[in-house]
Design brief:
The complex is a heterodimer of chains A (327) and B (303). With 327 residues, chain A is an all-alpha fold. Helix content of chain A is 71%, strand content 1%. Helices cover 35% and strands 22% of the residues of chain B. The chains are: A mainly alpha (327), B alpha/beta (303). Chain A binds chain B through residues 172, 175-176, 179-184, 186-187, 189-191, 193-202, 208, 212, 321-322, 324-325, and chain B through 79, 81, 100-103, 105-106, 110-113, 117-122, 126-127, 129-131, 133, 135-140, 142-144, 146, 149, 153, 176, 178-179, 189, 192-193, 196.
């Protein structure tokens, strides 16, 4: 028989896992890019990779403290945003999409190539950079919590930091988007020529937005790296598309959307994964091998997201009124 | 700012704007915009080739000409939305050549577009507030500190409400701009341009796609701009309207300025008749034949 309790319990773990927080943060960055400014950034995985590698390399190769490593990652993503933005932001929106998707792949391949293996670890990636972060943990040893939310001190420390960053970033975006700055940004999404005609330096605003969202992506990359090793194959284009799926699920120009969207995405993924694995074991799906079953969860998550997008196209937190005018 | 100076009946025309004969490129007594040798080619086509053009201050100047005459291209060049191959131009004595569009706008030369650019998913009020100049909170770091910009924001809001009331859009202030009709969007675009207190307002086909009921109100608003001391330059196809409100008319054909003058005189100019020849050769330029023909064609299709 299937152990439903274990399936639901494993799914619930994902609700507050650091990975969920990392995806939420990356999706918040994309919300700034795509939802608010209308920038088609298809390279969020590249920003995340720069965060993860910037953090790990700073500590492992250069022996930086945690705050120094964080600054290196953020600095790298600012430079990356400038390199992407300077040639493309004057052009039509689709050029940015092409350039970002290619640039993110270039970043990943640079981290994969054997030429820099002594620093990047090549395809094996990097690990052993968590001591500095763990040393900052003020929580005494032991396990805390209940049921699926029972973790040791390090895991709680990681969760608290990750979700605090998510909350701070969400508040930051909420504040700037209701300011005159946010009004210019949303105006650019609607029609940048009109905004230009009103005396706003559209290019500078788009650059600020690209950097801001990219920095959030980078911070997401660091959080993503803390519960696991940094492996280049984690930062493929599919990562960007998962984050887009989360963003559209929650609502593109919303603050809560990316956060709740990430929770739903990960809980569903974990639920389907657990359900299918056990269903195969129990012989419910005799035509399937375990390997095939591993892929099926993505199909089911895809179907679930399709249903949400069909029946609630503005996303969970999006404004229905906005869609009334989009044909 | 005078709130309601809607002219009754005949608008007051500004006269005696030029020096010497009213010919292409003639000098004006008080030009606000002076263009010299501006040209722009698209491939082999010379879209704009203007030797000399002066726009008189404090008057309403119409820029007319058949389709493809280069009116909109000239507009784009003068406002920094396009770069000319050659030429220079000054606005209030300051050179504008090579200046990006946003800086042209900041100098007080504000334009609207032929295809209305209302920011659809912003509210009418947000559209208006976006038009205000020198906003403290438009800096990312200051945006985080609302106490720095809240007062200015309230002032802008009051100003926007005042303008919206004049344009009869105040009841729509919390609606998305997308929910407005085509004519209302034109009004909103014009009202938004006024938020920055411009000195020169450039309207690209303000009447295109506006239903006749709104036309009169739009005309009054344009006349109001002049009454408030602004200079207006507009592109238009509707000759009735040009004759009604323009103080000065510049006629373009094939990229060149072919005639200039008082609206009543210029229609009799042989160069103007030649420019429109083929389309309106034997008809009164004032008659709105295009629309009549379009309606006839539509009726034929239906029957």
């Amino acid at each position: 028989m299937i152990d439903w309790g274990a399936i639901f319990s494993n799914a619930a773990v994902e609700l507050i896992s650091p990975t969920t927080a990392a995806y939420a943060l990356a999706a918040l960055g994309l919300a700034v890019h795509f939802g608010y400014t209308g920038l088609l950034n298809f390279g969020q995985a590249g920003f995340m990779a720069l965060g993860a590698y910037g953090y790990a390399i700073s500590i492992l190769t250069f022996g930086f403290p945690v705050w120094g490593a964080v600054l290196v990652g953020i600095g790298a993503s600012v430079v990356f945003a400038l390199i992407l933005g300077i040639p493309t932001l004057r052009l039509r929106a689709d050029y940015l999409a092409i350039v970002t998707i290619a640039a993110a792949e270039i970043v990943r391949l640079l981290f994969t190539t054997n030429s820099f293996a002594s620093v990047t670890g090549s395809a094996n990636g990097l690990s052993g950079y968590k001591l500095g972060f763990a040393a900052l943990n003020p929580i005494p040893e032991g396990t805390y919590g209940f049921g699926p939310f029972e973790n040791n001190a390090y895991d709680w420390w990681l969760r608290i930091v990750a979700w605090s960053v998510v909350v701070l970033v969400a508040l930051f975006i909420w504040q700037v988007m209701r300011s005159p700055w946010g009004r210019v940004i949303k105006g650019i999404r609607e029609d940048e020529d009109a905004v230009r005609a009103l005396g706003k330096n559209v290019y500078a605003y788009k650059m600020q937005s690209l950097i801001l969202g990219g920095v959030f992506g980078t911070m997401a990359g660091m959080i993503f790296a803390l519960p696991r090793a940094v492996v280049p194959s984690n930062y493929q284009t599919s990562l960007t598309f998962f984050i887009y799926a989360i963003l559209l699920l929650g609502g593109a120009a919303t603050i809560l959307g990316p956060i709740i969207g990430s929770m739903i995405f990960w809980v569903l993924l974990s639920f389907f994964s657990g359900f299918i694995a056990r269903a195969v074991e129990a012989g419910w799906l005799p035509f399937m091998t375990n390997v095939q079953a591993g892929q099926l969860r993505f199909i089911l998550v895809g179907v679930a997201i399709m249903l949400i997008v069909i029946f609630r196209p503005q996303g969970i937190f999006g404004n229905k009124k906005e869609l009334a005018f989009v044909h | 700012m005078s709130t309601n100076t809607v002219p009754n009946g005949k608008p007051v025309k500004s006269t005696d704007l030029h020096i010497g004969a009213a010919e292409p490129g003639c000098k004006k007594r008080d030009p606000i915009l002076v263009a010299e040798g501006v040209s722009r080619t698209f491939g082999g086509l010379k879209a704009v080739d203007v030797d000399h053009l002066e726009i008189p201050r404090g008057a309403i100047t119409a820029l007319i000409g058949p389709n493809g005459a280069g009116k909109t291209t000239l507009f784009n060049l003068l406002t920094g939305f396009d770069k000319p191959d050659t030429g220079s131009w000054t606005f209030e004595g300051k050179s504008l050549a090579g200046m990006p569009a946003y800086r042209v706008a900041r100098m007080g030369q504000i334009r609207t577009f032929q295809l209305t650019k209302a920011l659809s998913l912003l509210t009418v009020m947000d559209n208006m507030k976006l038009g205000a100049k020198g906003q403290i909170g438009e800096n990312l770091f200051r945006a985080l500190l609302p106490f720095l910009w809240r007062k200015q924001e309230e002032e802008n809001e009051a100003k926007a409400l005042d303008l919206l009331a004049r344009f009869k859009l105040d009841e729509k202030k919390d609606d998305y701009a997308a929910s407005l009709s085509g004519g209302q969007r034109k009004l909103l675009e014009m009202a938004r341009a006024l938020m920055s207190d411009p000195t020169l307002v450039m309207l690209d086909e303000p009447m295109a796609g506006v239903n006749p009921a709104l036309t009169q109100s739009l005309l009054d608003h344009i006349l109001n701009l002049k009454a408030e001391g602004m200079t207006v330059l507009f592109v238009e196809h509707d000759m009735q309207m040009v004759r009604h409100i323009a103080d000065w008319v510049v006629v373009m054909a094939e990229g060149r300025v072919v005639a200039e003058g008082d609206p009543h005189e210029v229609m009799k100019n042989q160069a103007v008749i030649d420019a429109y020849l083929g389309q309106h050769h034997d008809e009164d330029l004032g008659a709105d034949t295009e629309h009549v023909e379009a309606i006839k064609e539509l009726l034929d299709d239906k029957l």
